[in-house]
Amino acid sequence: MLKKRTKQNVIKDTQAHETDTGSSPVQIAILSKRITALADHLKKNPKDFHSRRGLLMMVGKRRRFLQNLKDKDEKAYGRLVKKLELE
Question: Which CATH architecture has domain 23-84?
Answer without folding.
Answer: Orthogonal Bundle (1.10)
